[in-house]
TrEMBL record:
Keyword tags: Kinase, Receptor, Transferase
Biological source species: Psittiparus gularis (Grey-headed parrotbill)
Molecular function terms from GO: kinase activity
Recorded superkingdom: Eukaryota
Record's protein name: Muscle skeletal receptor tyrosine kinase
Length: 18
């Protein structure tokens, strides 16, 4: 994504959800 922070946050959520 454009914002690294947003991308990292999304990945973290996906990882936690998984």
């Amino acid at each position: 994504g454009e914002t690294v922070v947003k991308e990292t946050a999304r990945i973290a959520v996906l990882d936690s959800g998984n």
